[in-house]
Amino acid sequence: MTALVHTAHDRAVTTLTLDSPGNRNALSAALVGRLADGLTRCGKDSDVRAVVLTHAGNTFCAGADLRDPPDPDVLVGLLRQIVELRKPVLARVTGHVRAGGLGLLGACDIAVAGAGASFAFTEVRIGVAPAVISLPLLPRTDPRALARYYLTGERFDAAEAVRTGLLTAAGDDVDAVLAPVLDGLRRASPQGLAATKDLLTAKVLEAFDRDAAGLTALSAELFSSAQAREGMTAFLERRDPAWVV
């Protein structure tokens, strides 16, 4: 059985690698739990200056695991944990990101991707909405771009993700893009990083405090609806749902 999340450490930076090949690193209850445990350990370890969240395989995260989805409250807790961690959390993406996986990017302080990465908010295509992942995304991402991609489910590339604010930077060699960022973090003091992150995340945490309960309830309501059942069944059966015209 796969460990789901692997941990490596190098010069004050801990890398957490999502490795759930059976579901393209989708957010199952088990994966969310393992990732939360890894973040907790990083938060307590004085040798960790920053955390890099990355992936095995060609998909960073395929969104919620429709066969074993996490409770919406638990997913909100994971996103908040990334935002609240008093150490920078960086996303390193070399593949595809869909739906709930984009919430992980939104929660991270810095997100970089290779030129071949692709992104899509596919929730509307299965009868639900990007509810809880909006908590970190709405305060940080261009609202006009979100309106388009939330409503259509269109796929977009890394350059567009940078333009919208979903990504910090992108390039052909993601590690070349990431290297000066990690160098800067290694030169920064732990106290300075923690205090600066508090400044940067204050507005995001206000959104959690204000909206988390309502968006969690909305997510649960939508996922239990008849249209969502049809959408998820169609997705699993690799067919169009009944409303496609």
TrEMBL record:
Belongs to the enoyl-CoA hydratase/isomerase family. It comes from Streptomyces dengpaensis. InterPro entries: ClpP/crotonase-like_dom_sf, Enoyl-CoA_hydra/iso, Enoyl-CoA_hydra_C, Enoyl-CoA_Hydratase/Isomerase. This is Enoyl-CoA hydratase family protein. The lineage of its organism: Bacteria, Bacillati, Actinomycetota, Actinomycetes, Kitasatosporales.
